[in-house]
Write a structure and sequence with these properties.
Helix content is about 65%, strand content about 5%. By secondary structure, it is mostly helical. It has two domains: about 70 residues; about 180 residues, no CATH class. It has a three-stranded mixed sheet. Helix 3 crosses helix 9 and helix 4 packs across helix 6. The protein is globular and about 50 Å long.
C-alpha cells in the first residue's frame, strides 16, 4: 500500500485532531493539540467503527488485489447491462448510497463466483453470468452481493485487534509527521487488513449466517425492484445441479446450496404478477447482452 493510500485512510482521524484547535490563539496550540491527541487516543482504544470513507479506501485496495488475480472482460455492452441491473438493485437495497457509489465489473473467467468488496465494488464472473437464465436471476445474484455491502460483511472480516492497533498508532502520532518506522508499521497493519478481507471473499468465504442473511435480503430487494424474488430460488436450484461438476468458485466459499435453498424457501415475499410485456422486455435485454 502506498503512502498516498495510507494518508487517505488516516485523513479523517487526523482532521478530527486539527479542527479542534482554536486558530485565534496559536500561543496555546500545543495544549490544543495535546487535548486532541488525548481524545483521539481514547477513541482508538475504544476501537471505534470503521467509517464509510475508510471502508471505501479499504474496498478499493481489496478490489485492486482481486484484479491482480483476474482479468476484466472487454465486453462493454455486457458491462453496461450488468451496471444497469446492479444499480437498480442497489437503489432498492437497505443502503442505496455508499461513500464512493456502487460499481459493477465482470471478471473474464469460467469460474462461477461473485465478490463484494467493501464500500460498493462488486465483481461477477462471466461464468456466473452464463449460469443465470434470466435478467431476474442475474438481479438475484447481484442483490445477494449488494446485501453483503449493506451489512458490511467484508469489513467485519478485518481482525479487530489489527484495526485497533492501527488506530492507536495514528492517534499517538496525530500531531506530527510519521517516522519511516511508523509508516512501515501502519502500512503493514493496513495491508494485513486488506489481506483479511481478500481471504474471506476469495478463499474462505463468509459464515453460514452471513450467507443466509444475504439471501434473505436479496429476496426482499428483488421484490422492491419489481423482479420476481422466486428467481433467487430458481438460480440456487440450477447452481445445486451444477455442484457435482465443480468444487471450486462459489461452491468452495458458500454453504451447501441445498442448505441455502432450504433456508430461504419460506422467506420469499409474495408479489403481484409481473406484466407479460415487462417479462418480454427483460428477456430481450438479457438475450441481447448475455447471449
Amino acid at each position: 500500500m502506498t503512502k498516498k493510500c495510507l494518508a487517505l485512510l488516516c485523513a479523517p482521524l487526523l482532521l478530527a485532531a486539527l479542527v479542534s484547535c482554536d486558530t485565534s490563539s496559536f500561543g496555546n496550540i500545543s495544549q490544543h493539540i495535546g487535548t486532541a491527541m488525548t481524545v483521539v487516543d481514547q477513541t482508538s482504544r475504544a476501537s471505534r467503527p470503521i467509517t464509510d470513507e475508510e471502508e471505501y479506501y479499504v474496498g478499493r485496495a481489496v478490489a485492486a488485489k482481486i484484479l491482480g488475480s483476474y482479468q476484466l472482460t472487454t465486453n462493454a455492452q455486457l458491462t453496461r447491462y450488468v451496471n444497469l441491473i446492479g444499480r437498480t438493485v442497489a437503489l432498492n437495497s437497505d443502503k442505496p448510497f455508499t461513500y464512493g457509489g456502487y460499481h459493477f465489473a465482470i471478471l473474464e473467467t469460467n469460474e462461477i463466483n461473485a465478490f463484494a468488496a467493501p464500500g460498493g465494488t462488486i465483481f461477477i464472473t462471466s461464468g456466473m453470468i452464463r449460469t443465470t437464465a434470466s435478467e431476474d436471476e442475474l438481479a438475484a445474484v447481484l442483490a445477494h452481493e449488494v446485501a453483503h455491502i449493506c451489512k458490511r460483511d467484508g469489513i467485519a472480516a478485518i481482525k479487530s485487534a489489527r484495526w485497533t492497533e492501527a488506530l492507536t498508532v495514528i492517534g499517538a502520532t496525530a500531531a506530527r509527521n510519521y517516522t519511516s518506522g511508523e509508516v512501515s508499521q501502519l502500512v503493514s497493519l493496513f495491508e494485513g487488513s486488506i489481506d483479511d478481507v481478500f481471504k474471506t471473499l476469495v478463499v474462505n468465504g463468509y459464515g453460514r449466517s452471513q450467507e443466509y442473511a444475504a439471501d434473505e435480503s436479496a429476496a426482499q430487494t428483488l421484490a422492491k425492484c419489481g423482479y420476481d424474488p422466486r428467481a433467487l430460488l430458481s438460480f440456487l436450484k440450477r447452481l445445486e445441479q451444477r455442484s457435482g461438476s465443480s468444487g471450486g468458485g462459489i461452491m468452495a466459499t458458500h454453504p451447501a446450496t441445498g442448505d441455502r435453498i432450504e433456508n430461504v424457501s419460506g422467506k420469499i415475499p409474495s408479489t403481484a404478477p409481473i406484466h407479460p410485456r415487462a417479462i418480454e422486455a427483460r428477456a430481450a435485454r438479457y438475450g441481447a447482452a448475455v447471449r
